[in-house]
Fold each of these.
Amino acid sequence: MKRKRYLYAGLIGTSLVILFLLSFHITEKILTDKNGAVQNAFRENSKRVSIDGVERLVGNNTDILLKLKRGSTFLETKNLKAEEISNKISGKLTLSKIKNYYKTQDYKFMGSEGNKIVFEKNGKYTPGHFYLGANPQGYIAIFKCNSEGDLYIENINSDTSNINIHDLPKKDQEYLRKFAYEYKSKSEAMDELMSMGS
């Protein structure tokens, strides 16, 4: 009697192993063509869909939209391909790595749909505009806002004055620290800077 139980248990176990191997073999045949190339659409696009916490790979042709806004007004939208940032991220491009990369630049992840990933950044400054402010040494300079919403000095020699912020009235110092003086052209900013020096 015991011998029959072991025999039946062995047959059932062997049957399950054979059934598993057979199903694995059939699945592999369905997903592989004659040349051995995988026909899975996700692999052709070099991306995988996230399933319950599994990492999502992002294809090089995925669009990344960077939207810069000030208040409720969108100032600029920059569209790039994932491959453009692949050299800035180590390893394979994944959605979480891209999110972390743009988080360090103050972008907020808004979502992804299909072949697009969207980020937004609330900018204080308008791209292409010029601002008067103080450089780290305390001298007044003309700053330009780039497409990312960040300020920089285009030409340190010609755009930095010899006027120290501490030589100005307190109200002007406060405005300069906040970059509150905004101009559409560099010449307007230069005229204002010259008037501060006189």
Amino acid sequence: MTEWIDRAVVGLAVALALFCLGRYAQISLAIDLETHEVVNEAPPRPPPPPPYGEEARALLGGLEPGTEVAPGWEVLRVEGPLDDGAIRVVHRREAQEVSVWLRPRGNDERPPPAHTEKWDVFYDRPNPPEPRMAREALTAMMNNVVERVAANE
């Protein structure tokens, strides 16, 4: 009789193990199929840049996209003011972009390379970094923005 009970316990253990293995396989396949569906979705598009507000347009003296500010460099777009009060002027030469940022005076812990009475002026590194940008071109971009803001603040 003990032999019969041993066989029954072993049989139940094997049945339970097979059931668990089958359930694990079912769950794994379901997760795998869900992952494939997500992978085929296109990545979300970035939000459009904020509009060029009237406040920023007046501060920049009506600076418009297409204005050449240094040889080969023109204004691509102006964004802002943003939620933190910053204004971004994006310049472009072929496929390379550089941004000059206006931030309310004292709102950034970094020392600004230039400033006006009410605004600190910063810049981003060129994107992509090559070809190398002439220092004179960056100086011309910064001076263009600083002079416009100083005349209109």
Amino acid sequence: MNGLWLGPTAVDLIFERMQLRGMLPTRAGSALCYGGNAEDRRLQLAGLFDEIAASLTLPEQPGAFDFVTAEMELDLPVLEKMLKLLRPGGAFALHFSHLSLLRRRRSNDMKKVGVILCRNDIWEREQVRPDLLIGKKMMRNVEIPQPPRLRLVASR
């Protein structure tokens, strides 16, 4: 990793950018730091969230976090699983390694990333730098009432 999360100023810059784009998480409840340097990032986020977990493995509970951050290789199944951990209104900041970026340029992975983001209700997103992607999960109504279905009655 090239040290995106090396100090409080880096964290401030990321959150400044998210605020500028309206991508801050709607709640400051829980955050997950995943992957390399997770413990360092957990310390840097201290005071911004009520609970902060640092892990080298992804938890199994979907919709459990208001913010997810990771330093990772571009791994599409892991990305999909990570986005499922966000609550509606939650946000993320993903930092990809340079080697991962070189592989991504050679393949069709960027289109696949876009599909994964849309499938997980991530409509607000921005590629801040080639190695940094930020975004926010859309707020949705729990249930949209369906109009009653009309039945056609055959006339005699």
Amino acid sequence: MAQLNGRLDKVVPMDVYTVEKNQITARVDALEAAREKDADKVTNTRRWMLGTVLTVIIALLPYLTAMVKGAGA
């Protein structure tokens, strides 16, 4: 392993590796931030859909109940 590192140091300067590592780290951080933002967006959409569906059902429940009672009379 030491021989391999010695050869790599001769071929490519260590600064190149440092810059490349920093770029990769920045990209990973950006992707993680985007992933968290997407997860929040999906969660908010689910909450909105659930709230909308429940609101409609609760709003129509008295009407449906009256229809059923009226039909049974």
